[in-house]
Specification:
2 domains
């Protein structure tokens, strides 16, 4: 659950600083700021693994009312005219909002403090998400799309979130990107998800963020790295849609900043613990790198370091406390490895 304290004392293993080095001791959190870290034995309010809160850097919350659809090709599921868009067009507004709110509450209670949503539905879609977010305590970066006939975003959008450039007329893509830039907003694009033929077009727009790059080849990744563009990967979603898996190890080797997302709620729960476990075991055998993707990297990509950045004295932020003595976690010898590969939302004692 999300908790707000004037002061709380935590003890156990603290994943400290930008390197997430395990530190045995205590932490005093006062009015949203890390006031003290020390090794002395003190009376504490909670004990466990103390870590930065999580960041879900790519999610589609709008289809939360339509969970676990049939296995279909990517375009039939989420492409223009696909199952998702037909369902959104025919579902009552209140049902869509309630679905999004349920997903947001689940995310907040399981340690996610910030997210980026690619918001369909123009201005009304943004209003629905803002309504769903009320009182959840979670920070949202809304990547919107213009209403039909317009190129301008809702004022509360952080940026524009476009599906593949192949899904839209190129002249429209250029126009909405130019409009977003003129309004000081970010540009994010899906690219290289089912094919690599939209990657160069996406790069020509100088985006602030790319999502997926499942089909990217080494030459594509070199261009992304040279341009300094961060990438968000969603491997569980890629499995469901059958598009393959991103070469995350190569991205990291090339120095690309990689974040982690759960993608469409209709395909996967917005559960970053499941995403971390799969990524660590299947693609990147480096627990520190994986945890950085859904904490420090995600915070940097979304500009929310004050919410989910590194733990250090004098810094604001949000912290998760994991129960190291739960039936699932008992016997852990490496707290960071167990947090990445084993922990589940049920092991979260508090989000502070």
């Amino acid at each position: 659950m999300m908790r707000s304290y004037g002061e709380v004392v935590l003890s156990g293993t603290i994943l400290l600083g930008e390197d997430l080095e395990p530190f045995e001791g205590h932490l005093t959190f006062r009015n949203g700021v890390v006031a003290e870290i020390g090794t002395e034995e003190v009376a504490s309010d909670l004990q466990g693994i103390i870590a930065p809160a999580l960041v879900n850097a790519h999610v589609h919350l709008g289809d939360s009312f339509l969970k676990d659809p049939p296995y279909l090709p990517l375009r039939d599921l989420v492409g223009p005219g696909g199952l998702k868009h037909r369902a959104l067009a025919s579902t009552p507004r209140r049902e869509v909002v309630e679905g999004m709110r349920g997903s947001l509450l689940y995310m907040a209670r399981s340690g996610t403090s910030a997210f980026a949503d690619f918001r369909e539905g123009g201005a009304d879609g943004v209003e629905m998400l803002l309504e769903a977010m009320e009182g959840t305590g979670i920070v949202g970066r809304i990547m919107g799309r213009p209403d039909p006939g317009s190129v301008h975003l809702h004022k509360d959008c952080w940026g524009i979130g476009i599906s593949s450039t192949k899904d839209h007329p190129w002249s429209w893509v250029e126009e909405v990107v130019e409009a977003a830039r003129s309004e000081g907003k970010k540009v994010a694009l899906h690219a290289g998800e089912s094919d690599r033929d939209d990657i160069e077009e996406a790069l020509s727009l100088s985006p602030d963020l790319l999502v997926h790059l499942t089909r990217a080849e080494p030459r594509d990744l070199r261009m992304v790295a040279e341009a300094g563009i961060p990438v968000v990967v969603c491997p569980r979603s890629n499995l469901v849609t059958g598009v393959g898996l991103p070469d995350v190890a190569k991205m990291l080797e090339m120095g690309i900043t990689v974040g982690l997302g759960t993608d469409n709620v209709m395909l996967n729960s917005p559960n970053l613990f499941s995403e971390m476990e799969f990524l660590s075991k299947a693609l990147v055998h480096n627990d520190r790198q994986v945890f950085m993707m859904c904490t420090l990297n995600g915070a940097q990509i979304l500009g929310v370091e004050e919410v989910a950045g590194a733990i250090r004295v004098g810094k604001k932020g949000r912290i998760i406390v994991i129960d190291r003595r739960s039936e699932n976690m008992a016997g852990s010898k490496d707290p960071l490895a167990s947090l990445v590969r084993r922990a589940a939302p049920s092991d979260v004692l508090a989000v502070i």
